[in-house]
UniProtKB/TrEMBL annotation:
Source organism superkingdom: Bacteria
InterPro entries on file: Anit_sigma_mycothiol_RsrA, Znf_put
Name by which UniProt lists this protein: Anti-sigma factor RsrA
Domain Putative zinc-finger residues, every copy: 11-44
UniProt cross-references to Pfam families, sorted A to Z: zf-HC2
Species annotation: Streptomyces jeddahensis
Gene that encodes the chain: rsrA
Length: 105
């Protein structure tokens, strides 16, 4: 997607990093470049608006789901096993199931 005009920041760069911009995960200098690009490029501005609307819709529809109790502990248990170089079993793992040394990694 491009408006066919040359820009300081190429359309492909803007579109490749659009979610970083939407999620405020980029440096302020890059944000400024993107904002300037949106002022010049209506196709990219339209794509930004569409993705922003989708993100808001997902948050509104799915943002209130409760995380099941114990899920964080299970995920952290698997991460610790992987970090310690152990094989990950098929069953659920909790931090309390790990050997003492693996819990501190």
């Amino acid at each position: 997607m491009s408006c066919g005009k040359p820009h300081e920041t190429d359309c492909s760069e803007v579109l490749d990093h659009l979610y970083e911009y939407l999620d405020h995960e980029m440096p302020d200098t890059d944000c400024s470049k993107f904002e300037h690009h949106f002022e010049e490029c209506s196709p990219c501005l339209e794509k930004y608006g569409l993705e922003q609307a989708v993100k808001k819709l997902v948050k509104r529809c799915c943002g209130h789901d409760d995380v099941p109790a114990g899920l964080r502990e299970k995920v952290m248990g698997r991460i610790e096993l992987i970090r310690s170089g152990q094989s990950v079993p098929d069953h659920d793992v909790t931090v309390s199931d790990l050997p003492t040394g693996a819990q501190e990694a």
